[in-house]
Predict the structure.
Amino acid sequence: MKEQLLDLNDHMATIEQRVLEVLHNVNWMLEAHDSSAELIEVNGNKVIIRCIGACANCETDCVGVAFQERMPDIELILQ
């Protein structure tokens, strides 16, 4: 049981690291529009991201597209 919990924690850390890498790669682009995106929570395969600035209401959905391309197995929730 303890080993399964450790595996789950490692998996969550891996997802969080991958999310942070995607955010790092997309935020440079968002900064040009006085915007940013930040990680709020990872819970299983559900990832909550807060968009700040003009990107919060943008129809281009750069953040969503970046995650769909790099992490299609997660459930992305944008705030």
Remarks:
- The longest helix spans residues 2-31.
- The mean pLDDT is 87.
